[in-house]
Design a protein that fits this description.
By secondary structure, this protein is mainly beta. It has a single domain (about 5-345), classed as Beta-galactosidase, Chain A, domain 5. Helix content is about 5%, strand content about 40%. The longest helix has 5 residues, at about 65. It binds alpha-D-galactopyranose. The site of alpha-D-galactopyranose (GLA) has 9 residues, from strand 24 and strand 25. Alpha-D-galactopyranose (GLA) binds near residues 71, 72, 285 and 287.
Length: about 350
Protein backbone atom coordinates (compact mmCIF):
# COMPACT_ATOMS: atom_id res chain seq x y z
CA UNK A 1 0.00 0.00 0.00
CA UNK A 2 1.31 3.45 -0.89
CA UNK A 3 1.44 5.99 1.91
CA UNK A 4 -1.44 8.48 1.82
CA UNK A 5 -0.34 11.90 0.62
CA UNK A 6 -0.31 14.57 3.30
CA UNK A 7 -1.00 18.28 3.18
CA UNK A 8 1.73 20.75 4.06
CA UNK A 9 1.15 24.44 4.61
CA UNK A 10 2.47 26.40 1.63
CA UNK A 11 1.45 29.83 2.93
CA UNK A 12 -1.47 32.05 3.82
CA UNK A 13 -3.49 34.38 1.64
CA UNK A 14 -3.84 38.04 2.70
CA UNK A 15 -7.34 37.22 4.10
CA UNK A 16 -5.89 34.41 6.25
CA UNK A 17 -6.93 31.36 4.20
CA UNK A 18 -4.27 28.67 4.17
CA UNK A 19 -2.80 27.40 0.88
CA UNK A 20 -1.85 23.73 1.11
CA UNK A 21 0.79 21.83 -0.85
CA UNK A 22 0.73 18.11 -1.69
CA UNK A 23 3.54 15.95 -3.01
CA UNK A 24 2.46 13.25 -5.44
CA UNK A 25 5.27 10.74 -5.80
CA UNK A 26 5.30 7.95 -8.34
CA UNK A 27 7.33 4.75 -7.89
CA UNK A 28 9.19 5.22 -11.20
CA UNK A 29 10.69 8.62 -10.42
CA UNK A 30 8.09 11.20 -11.50
CA UNK A 31 6.86 13.48 -8.72
CA UNK A 32 4.61 16.52 -8.69
CA UNK A 33 3.92 19.21 -6.12
CA UNK A 34 0.43 20.72 -6.32
CA UNK A 35 -0.93 23.66 -4.34
CA UNK A 36 -4.55 24.49 -3.61
CA UNK A 37 -4.18 28.02 -5.01
CA UNK A 38 -5.13 27.81 -8.67
CA UNK A 39 -4.54 24.04 -8.76
CA UNK A 40 -0.98 25.03 -9.58
CA UNK A 41 1.68 22.40 -10.25
CA UNK A 42 4.66 24.18 -8.68
CA UNK A 43 7.21 21.39 -9.26
CA UNK A 44 7.38 18.39 -11.56
CA UNK A 45 10.48 16.26 -11.26
CA UNK A 46 11.29 13.78 -14.03
CA UNK A 47 14.33 11.53 -14.52
CA UNK A 48 16.74 11.93 -17.44
CA UNK A 49 18.40 9.08 -19.37
CA UNK A 50 20.87 8.52 -16.50
CA UNK A 51 18.09 8.53 -13.90
CA UNK A 52 18.89 12.03 -12.60
CA UNK A 53 15.75 14.02 -11.82
CA UNK A 54 15.23 17.68 -12.76
CA UNK A 55 12.32 20.00 -12.23
CA UNK A 56 10.78 20.37 -15.69
CA UNK A 57 8.22 23.14 -15.05
CA UNK A 58 8.64 26.86 -14.42
CA UNK A 59 7.40 28.30 -11.15
CA UNK A 60 8.20 29.75 -7.76
CA UNK A 61 9.27 28.36 -4.40
CA UNK A 62 6.91 30.45 -2.33
CA UNK A 63 3.38 31.79 -2.30
CA UNK A 64 4.49 35.40 -2.79
CA UNK A 65 5.63 34.50 -6.31
CA UNK A 66 2.19 33.15 -7.18
CA UNK A 67 0.32 36.09 -5.61
CA UNK A 68 2.25 38.59 -7.74
CA UNK A 69 1.41 38.88 -11.46
CA UNK A 70 2.67 35.92 -13.46
CA UNK A 71 1.57 34.28 -16.72
CA UNK A 72 -0.49 31.37 -15.31
CA UNK A 73 2.51 29.24 -14.31
CA UNK A 74 1.32 25.66 -13.72
CA UNK A 75 -2.29 26.68 -13.13
CA UNK A 76 -5.73 25.42 -14.04
CA UNK A 77 -7.18 28.08 -16.35
CA UNK A 78 -10.96 28.57 -16.53
CA UNK A 79 -13.96 29.03 -16.58
CA UNK A 80 -12.98 29.46 -20.22
CA UNK A 81 -9.28 28.99 -20.95
CA UNK A 82 -7.93 30.82 -23.97
CA UNK A 83 -9.46 33.86 -25.60
CA UNK A 84 -13.11 34.84 -26.08
CA UNK A 85 -13.06 37.50 -28.81
CA UNK A 86 -13.99 40.96 -27.50
CA UNK A 87 -15.08 39.33 -24.21
CA UNK A 88 -18.62 38.91 -25.51
CA UNK A 89 -20.98 36.05 -26.19
CA UNK A 90 -24.65 35.29 -26.67
CA UNK A 91 -26.22 32.26 -25.12
CA UNK A 92 -29.87 31.28 -25.54
CA UNK A 93 -30.71 34.83 -26.64
CA UNK A 94 -28.94 36.62 -23.78
CA UNK A 95 -25.86 38.78 -24.19
CA UNK A 96 -22.95 38.37 -21.76
CA UNK A 97 -19.95 40.61 -21.40
CA UNK A 98 -16.76 39.57 -19.65
CA UNK A 99 -13.56 41.27 -18.54
CA UNK A 100 -11.24 42.06 -21.46
CA UNK A 101 -8.17 41.34 -19.37
CA UNK A 102 -6.02 40.76 -22.46
CA UNK A 103 -7.29 43.69 -24.51
CA UNK A 104 -9.35 43.54 -26.61
CA UNK A 105 -10.11 39.93 -25.60
CA UNK A 106 -11.11 37.93 -22.55
CA UNK A 107 -8.33 35.52 -21.49
CA UNK A 108 -8.22 32.51 -19.17
CA UNK A 109 -11.44 33.25 -17.28
CA UNK A 110 -10.96 36.97 -16.60
CA UNK A 111 -9.55 39.13 -13.83
CA UNK A 112 -9.78 36.39 -11.21
CA UNK A 113 -10.04 33.14 -13.06
CA UNK A 114 -9.71 29.63 -11.64
CA UNK A 115 -5.92 30.09 -11.53
CA UNK A 116 -6.30 32.65 -8.72
CA UNK A 117 -8.89 30.82 -6.63
CA UNK A 118 -8.47 28.57 -3.62
CA UNK A 119 -9.58 24.99 -4.29
CA UNK A 120 -10.76 22.34 -1.80
CA UNK A 121 -8.47 19.34 -1.57
CA UNK A 122 -9.03 15.64 -1.02
CA UNK A 123 -6.28 13.01 -1.36
CA UNK A 124 -7.72 9.94 -3.11
CA UNK A 125 -7.14 6.30 -2.28
CA UNK A 126 -6.70 4.57 -5.59
CA UNK A 127 -6.81 0.80 -5.97
CA UNK A 128 -3.49 0.83 -7.86
CA UNK A 129 -1.82 2.89 -5.11
CA UNK A 130 -1.02 5.82 -7.43
CA UNK A 131 -0.66 9.21 -5.72
CA UNK A 132 -3.81 11.14 -6.50
CA UNK A 133 -5.32 14.43 -5.38
CA UNK A 134 -8.79 15.79 -6.09
CA UNK A 135 -9.28 19.55 -6.14
CA UNK A 136 -12.75 21.02 -6.35
CA UNK A 137 -14.60 24.28 -6.17
CA UNK A 138 -17.92 25.93 -6.83
CA UNK A 139 -17.67 28.75 -9.32
CA UNK A 140 -20.76 30.72 -8.32
CA UNK A 141 -23.36 32.07 -10.73
CA UNK A 142 -22.05 35.41 -12.01
CA UNK A 143 -18.40 34.79 -11.09
CA UNK A 144 -16.36 36.78 -13.64
CA UNK A 145 -19.62 37.39 -15.51
CA UNK A 146 -20.34 33.74 -16.39
CA UNK A 147 -23.84 32.32 -15.90
CA UNK A 148 -24.63 29.35 -13.66
CA UNK A 149 -23.27 27.69 -10.56
CA UNK A 150 -20.49 25.51 -11.92
CA UNK A 151 -19.20 22.61 -9.82
CA UNK A 152 -15.75 21.73 -11.03
CA UNK A 153 -13.14 19.20 -10.03
CA UNK A 154 -9.64 18.40 -11.18
CA UNK A 155 -7.87 15.16 -10.25
CA UNK A 156 -4.09 15.07 -10.49
CA UNK A 157 -2.50 11.60 -10.47
CA UNK A 158 1.13 10.53 -10.81
CA UNK A 159 1.25 6.96 -12.14
CA UNK A 160 3.79 4.14 -12.03
CA UNK A 161 4.30 4.77 -15.76
CA UNK A 162 5.67 8.29 -15.07
CA UNK A 163 2.51 10.01 -16.25
CA UNK A 164 0.92 13.13 -14.83
CA UNK A 165 -2.79 12.54 -15.46
CA UNK A 166 -5.25 15.42 -15.21
CA UNK A 167 -8.95 14.58 -15.15
CA UNK A 168 -11.50 17.39 -15.12
CA UNK A 169 -15.23 17.29 -14.49
CA UNK A 170 -17.85 20.03 -14.47
CA UNK A 171 -21.61 20.34 -13.99
CA UNK A 172 -23.84 23.41 -14.02
CA UNK A 173 -27.34 24.57 -13.08
CA UNK A 174 -27.59 27.00 -16.05
CA UNK A 175 -26.14 26.82 -19.56
CA UNK A 176 -22.57 28.18 -19.58
CA UNK A 177 -19.42 27.91 -21.63
CA UNK A 178 -16.76 25.74 -19.94
CA UNK A 179 -13.22 25.14 -21.13
CA UNK A 180 -10.54 24.09 -18.67
CA UNK A 181 -6.85 23.65 -19.31
CA UNK A 182 -3.60 23.02 -17.50
CA UNK A 183 -1.01 25.74 -18.03
CA UNK A 184 2.42 24.36 -17.09
CA UNK A 185 5.47 25.80 -18.82
CA UNK A 186 7.72 22.83 -19.62
CA UNK A 187 11.48 22.80 -20.04
CA UNK A 188 12.74 19.23 -20.26
CA UNK A 189 16.33 20.31 -19.64
CA UNK A 190 15.23 21.60 -16.22
CA UNK A 191 13.66 24.96 -15.38
CA UNK A 192 16.00 27.92 -15.52
CA UNK A 193 18.68 26.00 -17.41
CA UNK A 194 18.30 27.08 -21.05
CA UNK A 195 15.72 28.01 -23.64
CA UNK A 196 13.44 25.41 -25.19
CA UNK A 197 14.76 26.33 -28.66
CA UNK A 198 16.96 23.22 -28.38
CA UNK A 199 13.90 20.98 -27.88
CA UNK A 200 12.14 19.11 -30.66
CA UNK A 201 8.37 19.36 -30.89
CA UNK A 202 5.83 17.34 -32.78
CA UNK A 203 2.12 18.29 -32.79
CA UNK A 204 -0.35 15.85 -34.31
CA UNK A 205 -2.52 18.43 -36.05
CA UNK A 206 -3.17 19.17 -39.71
CA UNK A 207 -5.19 22.32 -39.09
CA UNK A 208 -5.12 25.32 -36.78
CA UNK A 209 -7.10 28.41 -35.80
CA UNK A 210 -5.52 31.56 -37.28
CA UNK A 211 -5.33 34.46 -34.84
CA UNK A 212 -4.95 38.21 -35.31
CA UNK A 213 -2.06 40.34 -34.01
CA UNK A 214 -3.66 40.49 -30.53
CA UNK A 215 -3.97 36.67 -30.54
CA UNK A 216 -7.75 36.98 -30.97
CA UNK A 217 -9.20 33.97 -32.78
CA UNK A 218 -10.46 34.88 -36.24
CA UNK A 219 -13.06 32.10 -36.27
CA UNK A 220 -11.43 30.21 -39.13
CA UNK A 221 -9.94 26.74 -39.41
CA UNK A 222 -7.10 26.38 -41.91
CA UNK A 223 -4.51 23.79 -42.89
CA UNK A 224 -1.15 24.20 -41.15
CA UNK A 225 1.61 25.92 -43.16
CA UNK A 226 4.86 27.20 -41.56
CA UNK A 227 3.45 25.96 -38.26
CA UNK A 228 3.20 22.35 -39.49
CA UNK A 229 4.72 20.24 -36.72
CA UNK A 230 3.41 16.86 -37.83
CA UNK A 231 7.02 15.74 -38.17
CA UNK A 232 9.28 16.63 -35.19
CA UNK A 233 11.09 19.95 -35.61
CA UNK A 234 13.75 21.79 -33.61
CA UNK A 235 11.99 24.74 -32.03
CA UNK A 236 14.85 27.12 -32.73
CA UNK A 237 14.15 26.57 -36.43
CA UNK A 238 10.36 26.86 -36.13
CA UNK A 239 9.76 29.74 -33.71
CA UNK A 240 11.01 32.55 -36.02
CA UNK A 241 8.35 31.53 -38.57
CA UNK A 242 5.41 31.59 -36.14
CA UNK A 243 3.02 34.54 -35.80
CA UNK A 244 4.70 36.84 -33.31
CA UNK A 245 6.92 33.85 -32.36
CA UNK A 246 3.91 32.98 -30.15
CA UNK A 247 2.62 29.56 -31.23
CA UNK A 248 -0.84 28.60 -32.40
CA UNK A 249 -4.06 26.91 -31.42
CA UNK A 250 -4.19 23.56 -33.25
CA UNK A 251 -7.11 21.24 -33.95
CA UNK A 252 -5.87 17.81 -32.88
CA UNK A 253 -6.13 15.11 -35.55
CA UNK A 254 -8.48 12.40 -34.38
CA UNK A 255 -10.07 9.44 -36.12
CA UNK A 256 -12.95 9.14 -33.64
CA UNK A 257 -14.83 12.00 -31.94
CA UNK A 258 -14.02 10.84 -28.38
CA UNK A 259 -11.19 9.16 -26.50
CA UNK A 260 -7.56 9.84 -25.66
CA UNK A 261 -5.34 10.57 -28.67
CA UNK A 262 -1.73 11.65 -29.09
CA UNK A 263 -1.53 15.43 -29.13
CA UNK A 264 2.16 16.27 -29.05
CA UNK A 265 5.61 14.95 -28.29
CA UNK A 266 8.42 17.08 -26.87
CA UNK A 267 12.04 15.88 -26.73
CA UNK A 268 15.16 17.37 -25.17
CA UNK A 269 17.97 15.59 -27.03
CA UNK A 270 20.62 16.62 -24.47
CA UNK A 271 19.03 15.11 -21.34
CA UNK A 272 17.12 12.43 -23.25
CA UNK A 273 13.86 13.43 -21.55
CA UNK A 274 10.74 13.06 -23.68
CA UNK A 275 7.15 14.02 -22.95
CA UNK A 276 4.15 12.68 -24.84
CA UNK A 277 0.88 14.57 -24.43
CA UNK A 278 -2.42 12.75 -24.88
CA UNK A 279 -5.88 14.21 -24.44
CA UNK A 280 -9.60 13.80 -24.95
CA UNK A 281 -9.78 17.51 -25.88
CA UNK A 282 -10.20 18.81 -29.44
CA UNK A 283 -7.55 21.55 -29.43
CA UNK A 284 -4.10 22.33 -28.10
CA UNK A 285 -2.68 25.79 -27.59
CA UNK A 286 1.06 25.64 -28.19
CA UNK A 287 2.57 28.72 -26.54
CA UNK A 288 6.31 29.30 -26.96
CA UNK A 289 6.74 31.46 -23.87
CA UNK A 290 7.73 34.46 -26.02
CA UNK A 291 6.14 36.79 -23.46
CA UNK A 292 8.60 35.85 -20.71
CA UNK A 293 10.90 38.85 -20.55
CA UNK A 294 13.36 38.12 -17.78
CA UNK A 295 11.53 40.05 -15.06
CA UNK A 296 10.33 36.92 -13.24
CA UNK A 297 12.90 34.98 -11.24
CA UNK A 298 12.15 31.29 -10.84
CA UNK A 299 12.70 28.54 -8.30
CA UNK A 300 16.41 28.18 -8.91
CA UNK A 301 17.04 31.92 -8.68
CA UNK A 302 17.42 32.35 -12.43
CA UNK A 303 15.48 34.77 -14.61
CA UNK A 304 12.92 33.40 -17.02
CA UNK A 305 13.58 34.95 -20.43
CA UNK A 306 11.82 34.32 -23.76
CA UNK A 307 11.31 30.60 -24.43
CA UNK A 308 12.38 29.58 -20.90
CA UNK A 309 9.43 27.16 -21.04
CA UNK A 310 6.60 26.26 -23.41
CA UNK A 311 2.95 25.39 -22.86
CA UNK A 312 0.90 22.64 -24.48
CA UNK A 313 -2.59 23.54 -23.26
CA UNK A 314 -5.15 20.89 -24.16
CA UNK A 315 -8.61 22.42 -24.32
CA UNK A 316 -11.76 22.87 -26.35
CA UNK A 317 -12.06 25.67 -28.92
CA UNK A 318 -11.93 28.70 -26.58
CA UNK A 319 -14.29 30.87 -28.64
CA UNK A 320 -16.65 27.94 -29.14
CA UNK A 321 -19.53 29.80 -27.49
CA UNK A 322 -19.41 32.27 -30.41
CA UNK A 323 -18.27 29.74 -33.04
CA UNK A 324 -19.98 26.42 -32.17
CA UNK A 325 -19.15 25.07 -35.64
CA UNK A 326 -15.48 24.99 -34.54
CA UNK A 327 -16.23 23.15 -31.31
CA UNK A 328 -19.11 23.67 -28.92
CA UNK A 329 -18.07 24.35 -25.31
CA UNK A 330 -21.52 25.06 -23.86
CA UNK A 331 -22.44 22.88 -20.89
CA UNK A 332 -26.11 22.52 -19.95
CA UNK A 333 -27.84 21.38 -16.75
CA UNK A 334 -27.94 17.59 -16.52
CA UNK A 335 -24.78 17.17 -18.64
CA UNK A 336 -21.33 16.36 -17.29
CA UNK A 337 -18.24 17.71 -19.01
CA UNK A 338 -15.36 15.24 -18.53
CA UNK A 339 -11.87 15.44 -19.97
CA UNK A 340 -8.51 13.78 -19.46
CA UNK A 341 -5.06 15.04 -20.40
CA UNK A 342 -1.91 12.98 -19.84
CA UNK A 343 1.68 14.26 -19.79
CA UNK A 344 3.75 11.05 -20.05
CA UNK A 345 7.50 11.18 -19.38
CA UNK A 346 10.10 8.79 -20.76
CA UNK A 347 13.73 8.87 -21.88
CA UNK A 348 15.57 8.28 -25.15
C1 LIG B 1 -1.72 31.42 -23.17
C2 LIG B 1 -1.87 32.30 -24.34
C3 LIG B 1 -0.70 33.19 -24.48
C4 LIG B 1 -0.37 33.89 -23.19
C5 LIG B 1 -0.26 32.90 -22.07
C6 LIG B 1 -0.06 33.56 -20.76
O1 LIG B 1 -0.85 30.42 -23.44
O2 LIG B 1 -2.09 31.60 -25.53
O3 LIG B 1 -0.96 34.14 -25.47
O4 LIG B 1 -1.39 34.81 -22.89
O5 LIG B 1 -1.39 32.11 -22.01
O6 LIG B 1 0.82 34.61 -20.80
Amino acid sequence: MAEPIKAEIFGSLPGGDVVEAFDLKGPAGLSARVITLGGIVTHLRAPDRRGDAADVVLGFNNLAGYLAPHPYFGAIAGRVAGRISQGRFQLDGREYSLACNDPPNHLHGGDRGFDKRLWNSEPLDRADGAASLRLSRLSADGEEGYPGNLRVSVIYTVTAANELVIETEATTDRPTPVNLTHHSYFNLAGEGSCSVESHQLQVFAGSYAPADAASGLTGRREPVTDNDLRTPKRLGDVIPNLRGRHGDLYFIDRAAPAGLVDVARLVDPASGRAMTVRSTETCVQFYTGVGLDGTLVGKSGRKYGPFAGLCLECEGFPDGVNRPELGNIVLRPGEVSRHTTVYAFSTL
